[in-house]
Design a protein that fits this description.
Structural class: alpha/beta
Strand content: 5-15%
Bound molecules: iron/sulfur cluster
Shape: globular
CATH class: Alpha Beta
Largest sheet: 5 strands, mixed
Number of helices: 14
Strand order of the largest sheet: 9-1-10-11-12
Order of helices and strands: HHHEEHEHEHHEHHEHEHHEHEHEEE
Distance between the termini: 46 Å
Helix content: 40-55%
CATH superfamily: Aldolase class I
């Protein structure tokens, strides 16, 4: 099949194959990929609206023993800059979020060797008691797997206990590229592809909200990217069929490699950061291939507002979230901004040609164009 045939097939709502996706990556021009992805996005979601989430990222600790080569955020145990947030710091951050109408916190941190499961449970219980109106999505697959290893408990048991303590969802971080050839090179101590997928499989089984992420620009091949998308699509099929609960959305961004430990690898391989063109091609191919993901989010922190606005017209139906602070990607390179205030985000969505609609984690619309949505 030609690129044009594949794009026509996807626009008609017929599933494309991994070989088709590979051809799109190799030969598809953005102008064509983006137009087809936009047509699919408009068929799957309200064409007039682009959603956003008012939330806050909170990095509860920067202590980590996993030493990913692309990470400039973490500090080893005992380092002078190592921290674990206090309850007072959590409270201040969440109060700031509530002041702008926020509904969710996203807790992510390093793999701390000494924090026990009870610490995470106590935190979630405290959050639920103090802030019942703010949903806690927390601990990506690699974090929950690390907790299970520290406790020597089955992962499912850990997830069950965290959910009982108040956990509502798992962030999709730590996926990077779901191909062990890439993971072995950039994050050899981190959980492998099968581990990431298994954590999400169990999260779906236990009714948690999840997202799927993808980070490009590590020097991965197009085959590696297709493998990543195939694994997500297969798990989504499985989880929706078994539990009626799968990933709520897909989001990709570009690796920031300016100041990271893998700068030697970057030099050796002659890696250049994935730019705007490659980012946009990737989100378009993902929209065309992941036909069982209704929602695709744009990423403004790595590519900036202008490209995120283009993304809304090239496959994405969601503008992402306010984040309020972002410490992981931004410490590794030229992140364009670390937070967007709500009014600015609404303005940018309008400029891109859409009505801005505030949503919750599960994409229920809370406000449309600043006005409370009818229940
Ligand atoms: S990316 Fe996460 S797991 Fe890897 S070193 Fe950084 S904090 Fe640790």
């Amino acid at each position: 099949m030609s690129v044009a045939d594949i794009l026509a097939q996807a626009r008609d709502g017929r599933r494309i194959s991994p070989a088709d996706a590979l051809l799109l990556y190799r030969e598809g021009e953005f102008i064509h990929l983006g137009a087809a992805a936009n047509a699919v996005r408009r068929a799957q979601n309200d064409p007039a609206t682009a959603t956003y989430l008012v939330d806050r990222n909170i990095n509860y600790t920067n202590v980590c023993i996993t030493d990913c080569l692309f990470c400039a955020f973490y500090r080893p145990p005992g380092h002078a800059e190592a921290y674990v947030l206090s309850r007072e710091e959590f409270a201040r951050k969440i109060d700031e979020l509530r002041a702008i109408g926020g509904t969710r916190i996203l807790l992510q941190g390093g793999h701390h060797p000494d924090l026990r499961l009870e610490w995470y449970e106590d935190l979630l219980k405290w959050l639920k008691a103090e802030y019942p109106d703010v949903e806690a999505n927390a601990f990506s697959p690699s974090e929950v797997t690390h907790i299970a290893e520290v406790e020597k408990l089955p992962l499912e048991e850990v997830l069950r206990r965290l959910a009982a303590a108040g956990l509502k969802g798992l962030p999709g971080g730590g996926a990077e590229i779901l191909d062990d050839a890439v993971r072995d090179e950039i994050s050899p101590k981190k959980l492998k592809t099968a581990g990431w997928l298994e954590a999400m499989r169990l999260a779906h089984k236990h009714g948690l909200a999840t997202t799927a992420s993808m980070v490009i620009g590590f020097g991965e091949s197009y085959e590696h990217r297709v493998n990543h998308l195939v694994r997500l699509r297969e798990l989504q099929d499985e989880s929706l069929a078994k539990h009626g609960n799968g990933f709520t959305a897909f989001i990709s961004w570009t690796a920031q490699l300016d100041t990271v430990p893998m700068s030697g690898l970057v030099r050796r391989k002659g890696l250049r950061p994935a730019g705007a063109q490659e980012y946009l091609r990737n989100i378009a191919v993902a929209r065309l291939f992941l036909d069982n993901f209704r929602h695709h989010s744009a990423s403004w922190p790595t590519q900036g507002v202008a490209i995120a606005q283009v993304a809304l017209n090239a496959g994405c139906d969601d503008y992402g979230s306010t984040m309020m602070e972002e410490n992981v990607v931004s410490q590794a390179g030229n992140s364009t901004m670390s937070s967007i205030v709500v009014e600015e985000m609404q303005l940018q969505i309008r400029e891109a040609g859409f009505v801005p609609a505030q949503r919750d984690t599960r994409y229920k619309i809370l406000k449309r164009d600043g006005v409370e949505a009818e229940v």
